[in-house]
Design a protein that fits this description.
With 485 residues, the chain is α+β, with helices and mostly antiparallel strands. It has helices spanning 2-10, 19-34, 41-48, 52-61, 69-82, 172-189, 205-213, 323-331, 335-347, 380-410, 412-418, 433-449, 455-465; strands at 88-89, 92-103, 113-116, 127-141, 146-155, 194-198, 215-216, 221-222, 224-229, 235-239, 254-259, 271-277, 280-293, 298-307, 310-316. The protein folds into two domains: 1-82 and 432-485, no CATH class; 85-239 and 252-375, Alpha-Beta Complex (Transposase Inhibitor Protein From Tn5, Chain A, domain 1).
Length: 485
C-alpha cells in the first residue's frame, strides 16, 4: 500500500522544475495522510521534525512559481482515470458537484465574504463570514459501494478582493455556472463525456444552456449531460398540438400546463421497478416525461419517482436518459457531502491560516458583500498569490484524500487484515478513508524513522529534517501564518 502511495506521489515529479520543490510536495501529501493533527503548516513541522527554516520554506512553497496548480490538477485527473476505478454509465463518467462553506474569521484573508445557510447549527450560524468553495468529484468504485473522489476545488465568491466584478452574491446563476464550467473543463481536457449530478440549487436555465453549448462531434451529443433535482414549485408544458390545416394565426408553442408535483396524483401512469436508492435496493414507482420548460425554451427530461423517502422530481438534459439510471445516479450525490466531511475533519484540507497584510482589513461580523473592498492596484499581485495559496493548499489535501480512496479500492483485503483499531460496526465491506488512514499512517512513520526507508522518505530526511536550526522566530506560531510579500 505504501509502495503504491510512493509511486503515485512520484508520478508528479515532472510537474516541478526543481527537485526540492517536488520533495516539499511529497512531504505535504504524506503529511496530510500520516499526521495525527492538522492545524495548518505547523502540524507538518511537528510531524516531520522541521525547524523555523522548514516552516517558512513550506509557506513559500504555496506561492512558488516552480509549479502550476492547473498542471497538477490535470495530472491528477489523468492519474485517476488510469486506475480503472471510475464508474461509467452509457459510456459517460459520473461527476458530482456542489458548494461547501468554510467559516473563516481572518480580517485580511481574500475570498472571505458573508455567507448564508438555511440550516442553522452550532458551528455555523445563519449568517457568518467564510469562503465559498466549489468542488467537482468523480464517482469511483461502484454504485453499490462508491466514493466521491475530489478532482478540483476552487473559491467561487469574493472576486472583488481581486479587483474583479463578482455577481455571485446577487445572481445564483453565476455561482451555479462556475461549477458547470469546471465540469466542462474536465470533460474537454480529458476527452471524457460525462454526466454531472447536481442538487436543486443548480436547476436554473443558464446551467442547461452551458451544458448544451459544447458538443462532441464523434458522439453527436453534448460533452456534458445533467441530472438535477427540480424544485417543487416548477411547472412545465406539454408540446403544443399541430394546428389544423388552414388555421390562421401563429401556431401555439406550449401545450397544457403541468405542475410537477401534481404528476404524482396520476399513479396509473407510473411503472414499478427495482432501483438502488441511497445504497439500498427497493421497489419504486417511476415515470419519465419530456416536457417543455419555459426558462430554457426547450424540452427537458423530467423523471418522477416515489421512493421510501417520498416523491422526487429530477430534470435531465438528455432526452433519452434512462429514468432508473437517473434516479440511481442522483442518489449517489450524497457522497460528495461525505467527501466534504472528510476534507474538513479527517484531512484538514481547509485548515490554512494564510493572510496578507496587503489585503484591506474587513470586519469579522457579517455585513453585506457590496461593501467588500479591493486592494490597491500595486497590491493586487500579492493578494492574488495569497488567493492561489488557498486553492493550492486545498487541492493537495484533496489529492491526499483521493489517494486514500484509491488505496481502499485496490487493497481492500490487506487493509482489513492490518487494521487493529476498534470498529463497533462495519458499515460496508469497503473500508472508509479513515480506516485506510489508520492503517497506512503507522507504516509511513516507520519508513520515516527507518534509515533504509524508501527513496522519498530518505530524501525528506536528508533535505529537511537535518536542516540547520534557525533562531526562534515568533512568526512561526500557528496563529501567524501569512503569505505577504
Amino acid at each position: 500500500m505504501h509502495t503504491y502511495l510512493y509511486h503515485a506521489v512520484g508520478s508528479f515529479r515532472s510537474l516541478f522544475s526543481h527537485h526540492r520543490t517536488w520533495l516539499k510536495f511529497a512531504l505535504i501529501i504524506l503529511g496530510f495522510i500520516a499526521s495525527t493533527e492538522m492545524v495548518g503548516v505547523s502540524s507538518w513541522c511537528r510531524f516531520w521534525l522541521l525547524d523555523v527554516t522548514g516552516y517558512h520554506s513550506l509557506l513559500q512553497f504555496f506561492r512558488s512559481g516552480a509549479w502550476s496548480l492547473s498542471a497538477v490538477m490535470h495530472h491528477w485527473a489523468v492519474f485517476v482515470l488510469a486506475q480503472q476505478q471510475v464508474v461509467y454509465r452509457h459510456g459517460r463518467c459520473v461527476l458530482l458537484g456542489d458548494h461547501t462553506y468554510v467559516a473563516k474569521e481572518g480580517r485580511r484573508m481574500p475570498g472571505v465574504v458573508t455567507l448564508h445557510q438555511e440550516s442553522e447549527t452550532q458551528s455555523k450560524p445563519c449568517y457568518f463570514r467564510g469562503q465559498c468553495w466549489g468542488a467537482l468529484g468523480i464517482v469511483v468504485g461502484s454504485l453499490a459501494a462508491p466514493f466521491c473522489l475530489p478532482l478540483g476545488l476552487r473559491i467561487h465568491q469574493g472576486w472583488q478582493h481581486l479587483g474583479q466584478v463578482d455577481q455571485s452574491s446577487t445572481a445564483t446563476e453565476t455561482l451555479a455556472n462556475r461549477l458547470v464550467f469546471m465540469a466542462l473543463a474536465f470533460a474537454l481536457d480529458q476527452d471524457r463525456p460525462s454526466i454531472l449530478v447536481l442538487d436543486a440549487f443548480f436547476s436554473v436555465a443558464s446551467v442547461f444552456r452551458i451544458a448544451q453549448s459544447v458538443w462532441s462531434i464523434s458522439r453527436k451529443a453534448p460533452c456534458l449531460t445533467l441530472i438535477i433535482r427540480a424544485k417543487k414549485h416548477y411547472v412545465a408544458y406539454f408540446e403544443a398540438a399541430l394546428p389544423a390545416p388552414g388555421q390562421l394565426g401563429r401556431p401555439p408553442i406550449y401545450g397544457d400546463k403541468v405542475k410537477v408535483m401534481e404528476c404524482f396524483d396520476y399513479v396509473h401512469l407510473f411503472s414499478t421497478v427495482s432501483c438502488r436508492v441511497y445504497g439500498r435496493v427497493e421497489t419504486v414507482s417511476i415515470l419519465a416525461l419530456n416536457l417543455l420548460w419555459k426558462p430554457t425554451g426547450g424540452l427537458i427530461r423530467f423523471v418522477f419517482a416515489v421512493t421510501s423517502r417520498g416523491p422526487i422530481v429530477l430534470m435531465g438534459s438528455d432526452l433519452h436518459q434512462d429514468p432508473v439510471t437517473a434516479l440511481e445516479l442522483y442518489c449517489v450525490r450524497t457522497w460528495i457531502e461525505v467527501m466534504f466531511s472528510h476534507l474538513k475533519h479527517l484531512i484538514g484540507a481547509f485548515q490554512f491560516r494564510f493572510w496578507s497584510k496587503k489585503m484591506p482589513r474587513h470586519s469579522r461580523r457579517p455585513k453585506t458583500n457590496r461593501t467588500l473592498t479591493a486592494p490597491t492596484t500595486q497590491d493586487l499581485g500579492t493578494v492574488q498569490h495569497c488567493w492561489e495559496a488557498y486553492e493550492r493548499f486545498v487541492m493537495l489535501g484533496a489529492i491526499a484524500l483521493g489517494l486514500l480512496q484509491l488505496i481502499a479500492l485496490q487493497f481492500t483485503p490487506a487493509i482489513w487484515q492490518q487494521h487493529v483499531g476498534f470498529l463497533r460496526t462495519r458499515s460496508r465491506a469497503l473500508p472508509s478513508e479513515r480506516t485506510v488512514k489508520q492503517v497506512i499512517a503507522p507504516q509511513l512513520v516507520r519508513d520515516f524513522l527507518n534509515p533504509a526507508a524508501s527513496g522519498i522518505m530518505r530524501e525528506i530526511r536528508t533535505h529537511f529534517s537535518t536542516e540547520t536550526a534557525a533562531p526562534h522566530d515568533p512568526r512561526a506560531s500557528p496563529d501567524a501564518e501569512e503569505l505577504a510579500a
